[in-house]
Automatic annotation (TrEMBL), chains A, B, C, D:
This protein's record includes keyword Hydrolase: yes
GO molecular function: isochorismatase activity
Keyword ATP-binding: no
One Pfam short name: Isochorismatase
Keyword list, A-Z: Hydrolase
PANTHER family, sorted: ISOCHORISMATASE HYDROLASE, PEROXYUREIDOACRYLATE/UREIDOACRYLATE AMIDOHYDROLASE-RELATED
Top-level division of the source organism's lineage: Eukaryota
Organism, as annotated: Coccomyxa subellipsoidea (strain C-169)
Gene3D superfamilies on file: Isochorismatase-like
Family the entry assigns: Belongs to the isochorismatase family.
Protein name listed in UniProt: Isochorismatase hydrolase
Domain Isochorismatase-like: 82-262
């Protein structure tokens, strides 16, 4: 401190706090104030410290909320797209599947099997449309890597989903059986991004647009929609190529994740892709 | 092939396929059959090839579905637990928050502010209960690392969530302002696991039980529940310490993710923790 | 099986194995052979099962090894590039840094301080070159999120690297102090990709080219080079903007990771970037 | 401000900066100083803001460097351990492997084949020791999921490592062919953690101790050591069960990563495990 120091005023309350805080360590409050102001200036100069929370209210940056939802609606570019069929497999979609034998008695199985009948042709149409357009066709199935399932996630161990490799239940439903050189990813989590390397593979493939279908709409499919959206993909959910245990659950799910994806029927998507070719 | 070869029969149809397939390459069908049977035996011996799908139906492994849902109900062990407050910040929970200024006109804001009033004391109780029990108290807030938001995810750029560091909107709601040395993670994705290193931090901290609260119940909170469950955590969702834009949406979300977490009120959780101490 | 069945031969040894295997379950070896051949044909048709290992040697796909190393040499595109300064901070680069006080007595500190003197201007030149070209300038520092370091990785706890937030040691070296709105990522792992969300941020920023510099060449820098390469980035290592505890270690590291990155001096990179502008 | 305000002094230089900064916005420097001191006090109270960098030098937290390297030496607990064989496959370890046909003419192949001969029995011993002790035995191989390799990482495309599924080259070396129900993970990155879900699987299996072996010592093996260490595993590198293209490269690698793992010969590890059983 020197002769040229300037005099300023601070509130009695703040002065008192400083006094209390530093009395045993430091008598000279001026030094503390000097340091405080210098720190404050440094924060102002840098605007903001990354990850940090500068405290200068006079020039605080302002938050905004300006959705540009039209950007989520951009059409699929086939050469940068993949379709993923989620859990369309015997375990839960075939009458002989093990999960279907163990469901609680109040499960609305009649609705389910009717829905399966309606959805199967949608899966076929979606698969054919994508193959024809040169879109990568991928599948994920509930399946462990070991016969005893020891590699299953904690959740799948609790949920009791045990589908060993090589089992009938692990197979993709016959109507859309994987073609030559199409990728099938076994998973032991609801969200395919959690337990598989799909994000890595999609990046390797140059995929930016992810088309999702399968079941259950509000379980594994919804989890995939949410994470794909968070992981920088443009997500198209094919609404009539998804199924869950009631129409109400299906509709609720579509509403809930409306902000994370765009939603199209198979036919709408097929039309869009056909249009893109012209 | 030698004198000791054994004679077997295969169907005409299969024989014909082999014939067609190999006629230009190989005349001797016996060699192909020999190889096929050896491959088949090898598959049988190894039981299953990891990641592979052996095709031997005679001894195929069997899938099962045996939920053990009681395992999801095990009580929180405080020394291995963390509570995470999700998006309890000025941006969307304070009347001056920027998001609240930009909502569509049909947003049920009356419900929302009433809910905020009811929920705030629950957050405080939850925070205090956890702190007292030695449970790690953590926060995540919608916030970019840069003032211009260029580090935001594609989704947040589309959604228009712009909360710069140092802004009023980035601050945790004052009623549960972070205490000394509590961790706050800025995020630019709905699911906190997608855009932050929280999974790494939780592992470093030795956390196995994750308690979740905040808003919106059916958006960022639900995404966190789903991913935490998939990532091997025992998840407790604190139902009355969550909020979204209608009671119906809140209830639907709880039902939908019932299989991914256990659900408790703040008081139930507090009682459980008090019980654990005895 | 029918009248039209065809007769084929299999080796006695294989026949015997089948006999042994199935005697208690199945008398009719023909059925097993039929199934084996059908499985074999199915494998042939699909070419390969994803993740699986079909066993048909006759038409096995062929591996190749055809490096295209010129592709790793493509020049940085400034608008899609970031430079990351690794651990250029007081803890280990400043004479008052805590790590430098605790090094084993046989550490070649004379070499180190000389190297620091030479490297500091390189860091400045690199930083200035990148800023001017519009390349994103980023920093990572050894730093925990908590004052007691409980969030440190197991490795950092063992290694004893304790750098609390707000400490002198956590600061980037003054000569390249972060500018306004530049990102600084605290880390508690050698490899910045392991303990931070840098991969997420780089994707958000649209970065494809990653320029790496800092210290130690053969520790944290090398780990970052390896992982960045594996994570689909084009990596440029700036050789004279890296340092470690001996010239030999430095040179060995550059040789070892030559296949994971291209290597340039600051001047070479500056020339390349200047050239790109023309 | 009130009558009870206290007078303090700040340096002329700081005062001048404030003046410059605020002249057009704010005449009253006292208000700025008050805010600065309050912000400073708030930082002091919270000790440190997570992720932030408070600037109060008077009470800055202190960094330390206190290695506890004995903690890295704790012996493997078999029930919580896995061994991973890295790239011990025909592609690069068998005389007919495709990579071995394409190596540059100056590759020291004589050294390599001699080394392979010495190392093969070590792999067998390591595999047998681990199996016997109930340690999970795992393998990773260079292999794409598609016949045309389109799912390969950018790095593998550049490096030209093309190993389709079902190829001879994708097979683990016969001497340690995977047993029934052992996990094999195909990868298209140097670091197995980058392109596979191994971290997820290890967590599902409850693995804390990771034993690493294979080749090349200073390439894929070293990358795995580094990342496993960063990902909270206790890593044991089995030195004589690793190989690279020269003894010098091998030795350099072991020295470089000495801080990331403990290093044992197969025999030392076998003795330790035998000891643990007693």
């Amino acid at each position: 401190m020197s002769d040229q120091d300037k005099t300023v005023k601070i509130s009695a309350e703040t002065w008192s706090k400083l006094q209390t805080l530093y009395q045993t360590e430091l008598k000279d409050i001026d030094l503390v104030v000097e340091e405080a102001v210098q720190a404050y200036l440094k924060n102002l100069e840098t605007g903001s410290l990354s990850n940090g929370q500068p405290q200068n209210a006079l020039r605080r940056p302002e938050a905004t909320f300006k959705p540009q939802t039209h950007l989520r609606q951009i059409p699929v570019v086939p050469g940068e797209a993949a379709v993923l069929f989620i859990d369309v497999q015997n375990y839960n979609c075939h009458k002989d599947g093990a999960e279907m034998q163990g469901l609680p008695p109040d499960t609305p199985v009649d609705y389910w099997w009717k829905r399966m009948e309606e959805t199967a042709p949608k899966w076929v149409q979606l698969r054919d449309t994508c193959r024809e357009a040169g879109i990568e066709v991928m599948y994920t199935v509930i399946q462990s890597l070991t016969a005893d399932g020891r590699d299953q996630s904690l959740d799948y161990k609790i949920s009791g989903f045990h589908v060993p490799p090589g089992s009938f239940d692990a197979e993709v439903l016959n109507c859309i059986a994987p073609g030559p050189d199409e990728i099938v990813l076994p998973k032991t989590s609801s969200n395919v991004f959690a337990s598989t390397n799909i994000d890595y593979i999609l990046r390797s493939l140059g995929v930016k647009f992810l088309i999702l279908a399968g079941c259950l709409t509000d379980q594994c499919v919804e989890s995939a929609v949410r994470d794909a959206c968070d992981k920088h993909y443009y997500v198209t959910l094919v609404t009539d190529a998804c199924a869950t245990f009631s129409q109400e659950r299906h509709d609720n799910s579509l509403r809930t994740i409306n902000g994370f994806c765009r939603q199209r029927t198979v036919q709408q998507l097929a039309d869009e892709i056909a249009q893109a070719k012209k």
